[in-house]
Every structure is written in structure tokens, then in C-alpha cells.
Amino acid sequence: MVPRKHVLRAVIAAGMLAAGLVPAVAAADTPAPDGRAQVAASTFVSRISGPDRYSTAASISAFLFDPGASRPSAVYVATGENYADAIAAGPAAANDRVPLLLVTKNSVPQATREALASLRPQEIRALGGTAAIADSVLAELGVYTDGIVYRYNGADRYETAVILMQDQFGPGEENANDTMWIAAGNDFADAMIAGGIASFWNDPMLLVPPDGPLPGSVASFLDALRPVDIIIVGSTAQVSPAIEAQLRGFAAERLIRIGDPDLYTRNVAAYDVYPVGPSSVSNAIITTGLNWPDGLGGTVLAGFPPRGPLFLVPGTCIPPVVAVRLFAEGIGYLSENPNDILYILGGPAAVSPAVEQGAIC
Hints:
Elements: H1 4-18, E1 38-40, E2 43-48, H2 53-64, E3 75-79, H3 84-96, E4 100-103, H4 110-119, E5 124-127, H5 135-141, E6 149-152, H6 157-169, E7 179-184, H7 188-201, E8 205-208, H8 216-225, E9 229-233, H9 241-248, E10 254-258, H10 263-270, E11 283-288, H11 298-301, E12 310-313, H12 320-327, E13 341-345, H13 353-356
Parallel strand pairs: 2-13, 3-4, 3-5, 5-6, 7-8, 7-9, 9-10, 11-12, 11-13
Antiparallel strand pairs: 1-2
């Protein structure tokens, strides 16, 4: 029987050649360690998933934090019934090097309870008002910490993100940054891209409405921060020219729009604003771009050492533009280093086994 790694290498090479792409580099003749699937060269796949979004978030937390290690300074908790608060929490949690877990409005799922019991965080930071997480849930969360449980609570998703970013990246903060990433608050895919790259670079991100006046909370924060670069992820269909014009007034130097009509091309282009050389990346993360639950924790994972860019796929295959960035010799992030790992977030219903095997769209 042909070793599985050779079969998978052939799948990648054939797919990239068929798409007119540069084929992946050759692999060494050694078996895949730990039974992990091999995608290209010596890149191995590690799938992080659970039976539902709450379990997947808990699994990511368990991957990042050894239960026997020191207690994290905090845990961020957001509703798993919407994406906006959790995505905004990603860069803050990555900056703090603490996990993100999910709850429902009225309950703490079993997977989250078990994760909190294992972590024993020094405090718990909840995202959103009582419409997102009930007071009774905060009371239940208090059982798992001997510190405080408090809310980042704005009038809407835009102000909640502002309050969170002010706490982590505001003027005068030690880790204040020169770049602000922006995405539409009603578009989960671009928000996940922006959240992932903000975490990767230890930058803040904000959400904006697709059109109309910029929320006062966003305008006030940007006016105080005056970031050197403001970078919009999304085409004019996601973030209107009117919003762009308002944002431009707050950029000290550049306003950049990553606005290709194709979602996956935008995803790759986001990592080209400040080029990331292959030698500086040893991991990458893939999740579905068709839905948001599994990707919420990916925005945190992208910023944890050794870090890794977060890429979206349509579920059953890898878009050519993403495949090139992952696997192509010379510019791909994942190549011959046996420590290179491609993390897949979500079960096979979200990201199919064909992706593990390197299927090109």
C-alpha cells in the first residue's frame, strides 16, 4: 500500500496543478506522527472540534491551557447564540493570553462548566448586556472564580466592542497599537477575518454598521486613539463608501480597504498588508466561511504563540488562493518543517475530510 502521506501529497500537487498553481514541495519519506493526517509536504493536520459550538470553544481552551498549569488571569465569556461579541473578544483574549468560552443567554452549557472548573480563572469577563447573557448566568459563572465577574456592556455590538478595546488597547495603555482593523458588524465572515488578523498582530478591531453614520462610540474612540493605519476588511457591499469616508478622518496616515469581491481572496490579502514571511509562521488555522460558530475560538487561537493566520474555506475544499498561500514553495506558510501544523476548527460537517486531504476547489 502506498503510504498515506504520498497519496495526500499527490492530491495537493494534482489539485494545484489543475488550478494552474505552483505545486507543494516534496515530502520526506517518514510516517505522519501521532496519526495526524498529512496535507502537504511535512504539514500535519490537527482537528479541534466538539459536538457543538460550546464544546468546540471548550476544546480550543483545553488545547491552549494545560489544566495542571497556572490559573489564567481571566476568561472571556460571550453568547454562542450570536457572533459579534465573541469575535470582538478574540483580539482581547489573545492579547491577555486567556481563553474564550461560550454560553447561552439563560444557561451555562456542560462543556463550558467543565472548562471553567478546570481553568479556575482569577476572574470572568462577560460580553454584552442581559439581552445576550442573563444576570442568572453571571451568577452561575461566579461559582467558578474566587474573583469578580463583570460585564463589558454597550448599548449595541459596536459600543460593546469599543468598551472592550478601550480596556485593552486604549490611549495610554501599555499595549496600545498603531493599527485598527474594521469589519461590518452584520457580516460574520469579514469580522472573523478581521478578528483573526487583529489577534495575529496583537492589534485591536472594531465593528461598524454597513452604512449610515458611524456610531458615536466608535467615532469617539478613534478620535482619541488616532491610529496610524485603519484597515477595512470588506468590499463596498459590506462597508459602504460613506462609512469609509468617515473612518478616513480618524487615520493618522493611511486608510486601507481590503475589498476584493471574493471572500477568500480578501482573507489572503489581509495578511499581505504587513507581509508575513513563511519563516515566521509555523501554524495556520482553517475553519468554514459558511457559518460562524466553530470559527469564534479561531480568532483567539490565531494570536496565541506560536500564532498562525486564520483562513476561511467553503467547507468541502480549499480555495486556490488559500492553497497557494498555505502550500506553495517559496511563499506558502506550511512546507517542509515537520513542526508545521494546519489546525482545522469544527467537525466534518463544517470542514469536510476532503479539506484534510488537500482537496482544491
